[in-house]
Amino acid sequence: MKSSKREIQSRVHKMPLLRFVDQTLTSFAGLIVFQPLLSKLELKSRLRSCFSHLSSASIFGHHFVVLLLVVHLILGFRRLRDVQYYKDDPLVKRILGLNKLPDVATISRALADADQMSVTKARELCRSLVLERLRKLELARITLDFDGSVLSTSRKAEGTAVGFNKKKKGARSYYPLFCTLAQTGQVFDFHHRPGNVHDSNGAPAFILACISIIRREMPWVTIEARLDSAFFSDEVVTLLDEAGVKFTISVPFERFAELKKMVEAHKRWKAIDSTWSFFENSWKPKVWGKRFRFVFIRQESSIINREPIQLDLFVPHEYGFEFKVVVTNRRGSAKKVLLYHNGRGSQENVFGELKSQTQMGYIAVRHLHGNQIYMIAAILAHNLNRELQMATTPAARGTTVRRAPLWSFVELATLRHRLLQRAGRLTHPSNRLTLTMGANEAVKVELLRFLEGLEKAA
Fold it and tell me: Would you say the pTM of this structure is higher than 0.90?
């Protein structure tokens, strides 16, 4: 039906009178979808056990503070002081099980009270939540990606150090090493480090620990791993091979002059497609005890190399081509090895979401363990978003060569804009608690889909 101009347009002349009164209004009505999820996972009681060894004079237990931080980050807030902007929100208080939210000083003290045991138990909780999802999926294989990410700060926080930082030179930072799961896009575990260590610092023990935990909990599963050139060493390669893990690792040209000679001496490259070509060799550095499969890959490129000329001493240079080498114990064609290894780029998307949407890069306090707890809250917020979608939506695809996530995940920022940031009113008609929202059909359909999906999954 066609509408007239008078029916569509309206004149605006005056500003409305502003009034601020106490009412049971919420700005985050869509947050209701997380209430059954948090209840189903028993997150509050499990967080309580993480801090049961700490004694506190505060009325608010440490588990309430950490759960508040998880909700705080899901809602898109960053600084601790931002709590004051929703401290009266009735739905936030209801989901947390509180009649009053803690103030900024209470949150800061709770983070300052955290110790190493608290961090250890919270890491165990993160791992257990991810393992529960993996057991439900009954996957035949699990792909682990390992890499570090810099968390910079302008303040002097405990445990930070000045290290290599492209974006913020001279800034103090942490440099944790993460283990993420390709199939679900969740963070499985992390190894916290200061910002002045090499990428591989503590990596062998951390990698072995992650593999051992998954193998103990899911002995039937095939474990795969992908790593960049910073982790290339005899120790890591031998560790993965002896553990029965199928791996691919980028090889640094700068450490082995022989690799450049092998590339430049090879004249007949086998085509993978119109862009990629390869040859492979069974090779080992002189000090290694065992040979492995090295796949040499050449990619056509029109990008001019603008790197310092000194690197040409180590890196093969040929106009119109870029080169890389991957070491692996996987069988199969070079094309499958290349696609599988290049799939690890999805981990950068996970880091991007963690920093931009759950504020993992923010250094909240000056205490080391407090900052680790804040980072765990950010990881939990990210993982809960993925868990919500996996529990209520069927998988979009099966296992691909690149090991793409099985679901087409909606980012947390998108979920906030579409669903969470919706006005609502809590009332008690006929003595029954009711959340009333605007009659937007898209919001209604999406909200009910999540709630019905969680009810079926319970």
Answer: yes
